[in-house]
Amino acid sequence: MWELRPYFRQVAGQLVLGSICGIIMNIAVVLPPILLGRAIDTALAFEQGQASATAVAWAALAFVAGTLATEGPRVLKRWWIFTGIGRMMANLRVDAMSGVLAWPMATLHITPIGDLMSRIISDVDVLGFGLREFINETWDTLLFSISMVAAMLIYDPSLTLIALLPVPFGMWLGEATGRWVRPRTAAARQASASLTALLQEQLAGIRVLRLFGWSATAIARVEQRSQRLADANLGVALLRGALTPVYMAVMTCGVVLVIWLGGQRTAAGIMSVGAFIAYLQLYLRFTQRSFRLPQMLNSIQSGGVAHDRLKPLLAPALPAAEAQVRLASFRPSYVSGIECRPEPLPKIQSRPLAVSVERLRVTYPGAASPALHDVSLNLPAGSFVAVTGPVGSGKSALARSLLGLYPFDAGCVLIEGVRADQMSETERAARVGYLPQDPYLFSDTVVGNVLMAPQDQGDPAQDEVEAPIVTEALAASALDEDVRAMPDGLNTQIGEGGIRLSGGQRQRIGLARSLAASAPNRPGLLVLDDPFSAVDVETEARIVTALRQVYGPAAPSERQATILLCSHRLAAFPQADRVIVLDRGRIVEQGTHEELMQGDALYAAIFRAQRTVLTTEANQPAGRMA
Q1: Which of 8, 138, 305, 399 has the fewest beta carbons under 10 Å from its own?
Q2: Residue 589: in which H helix or E strand, if any?
Q3: Which of 178-182, 282-286, 447-451 has the lowest mean pLDDT?
Q4: In 381-459, which residue ranges form alpha helices assigned H by DSSP?
Q5: Could you count the other beta carbons within 10 Å of the beta carbon of residue 558?
């Protein structure tokens, strides 16, 4: 609770209003039983000719007014508190996502996506339920019970002390149950995370499962983990469910005492019938709510488990003073951070960037051996450097190292003299374009994926800056004709992961993104990791030619870029200024294409083999497969 105080401050206005309503409710909560007792005494007096019908009517109206005075504030209290907790849950999810986006890539590399999804969705729900129980039951049960006990003490102190004898045992029972609830809740949250991770993996690979006939196996695995989650949830539910009847059975002893001793007092004339009924109503209302206290403790403990799992994800909460909306803490629909649109990238001077790699060694988390070992190279500003090598030689590791996202075991990467791993995210986005091996596309439009930024409809200034950059990127990616053939052009929805596109189109949209996502700037460094694996040789040649024309030495200086091309296809390598060959994480050859072709080493062997295959395919008769 103490660690969540920044989130309480963000909704302090709503909690204050809810608390005011809670105070009014708990002041008025004793009125219905008391006024009911007085109404009964008035009715009995009327029957005996000691009161008028008007007095009975006023007593009945007072009882109704007392009930409204209690239930009206209760409704408002719940509205303000429940919407405030809903806002806190939304703020927690925003900050959890922000925190994950700021994680080191080494941490993300070993963390299952399904586990993160479970924490951000399910654990926030559990935490929110615990917060709601704590705040709401503080008013509805804790202070409610105190008000009831205070009223009973005023009626009859000795009877009240006797009637409350079972309460300490019931409280102890709830606390003892909580000790068992916490570990079982932790097991349930872990089982939920395991199931979510499996579902995310199975649904992402559903086509593979159906193609290879593994649907039954996938269902069995989901069933097994679902059963594990059901068993864990059942264990928690049984503990919580068993608490209520046991507690109520204990408290029934108090009811018996009240009826026995209170009946004797009424028969002796010490208490009136109305006072006895009022007292009995107070005690029954106390027992009907006080069992919630142990449940509240259990819910808080479950929320604590969820918070322990969520805490590593959370970014620092936005201070309430920084909210952009006046009196934001009083607004039920306001979520911190949602209204904050990302700042556009700063306009910087575009120019090609020089890169220096010095004795670099990189090991992926959990890997047995380094992906790169003692790699040193220089990429002069404006140069076109091509990197190849066998599968697992370290091409992708080198491409990622230039981005500075993964930690280095040794050595460093300098971009214009600045360490790549110390560049800010904004500076990297404004100056570096990157195409990974798997160019993940989002469920958005073509232009949304290319620019990777929200589109402000009707903003002529932004459109004027971005339009030529997008057009240029589409042309350089050989995607312009494809876009013109799409039903809505740049605004065509491509579906989750680009499912509505071909593999080559997805890859070329990823390439266009690497060229245009730095808008309003043009990238000074292009890192392209296997950009031609899904395109034909003719399209590859068009793309390489376009890249050389748009970003090569012949282009204006503000449009030039340093290009690092990592690929196992070598058709474009003759146009490179320098070729680097990796094997087992080390540089084994480097030089121009002509220099490397003069020998019989690895590069020459790969190039000649690929050229032979292409020549054979070109000579195949039409309609036959090579």
Answers
A1: 138
A2: strand 586-591
A3: 178-182
A4: 395-401, 425-431, 446-451
A5: 12
Pairing of strands 432-435, 525-529: parallel
The count of other CB atoms within 10 Å of the CB of residue 69 is: 18
Number of residues assigned to the chain: 626
Residue 460 has pLDDT above 60, yes or no: no
pLDDT, one tens digit per residue, over 595-613 is: 999 878 889 988 888 887 6
Measured distance CA(272)–CA(610) in Å, rounded:
105
Give me the domains of the chain, ranges plus CATH numbers: 5-317 (1.20.1560.10), 360-369+376-548+561-618 (3.40.50.300)
Cβ pair 575, 544 in contact under 8 A: yes
DSSP letters, 163-218, are HTTTHHHHHHHHHHHHHHHHHHHHHHHHHHHHHHHHHHHHHHTHHHHHHTT-HHHH
Residue 456 pLDDT greater than 60, yes or no: no
Helix (H) or strand (E) holding 526: strand 525-529
Distance between CA 583 and CA 567 in Å, rounded? 13
3-state SS track over 243-256: HHHHHHHHHHHHHH
In this structure, are strands 410-415 and 355-362 parallel, antiparallel, or unpaired? antiparallel
* Separation between Cα atoms, residue 356 and residue 353, nearest integer Å: 10
* pLDDT category of residue 622 using cuts at 50, 70 and 90: very low
pTM: 0.74
Burial 105-125 (b: 16+ CB within 10 A, else e): eeeeeebeebbbebbbebbbe
Residue 623, CA distances (Å) to 536, 615, 616, 620, 626 in order: 17, 16, 14, 8, 10
As a whole number, mean pLDDT of residues 407-423 equals 90
**All residues at 6 or more sequence positions from 7 whose CB lies less than 8 Å from its CB, including other chains:** 88, 91, 92, 317
Q: For residues 173 and 246, is the Cβ–Cβ distance under 8 A?
A: yes
Q: Largest alpha-carbon pair distance within the chain?
A: 125
Instruction: Identify any residues that bridge with 377 across adjacent strands, giving them in sequence order.
Output: 357
pLDDT at 624 over 50: no
**Given the structure tokens 């204050």, which residue do they identify?**
16
pLDDT band (50, 70, 90) for residue 321: low
| Cβ proximity of 545 and 537 under 8 Å | no
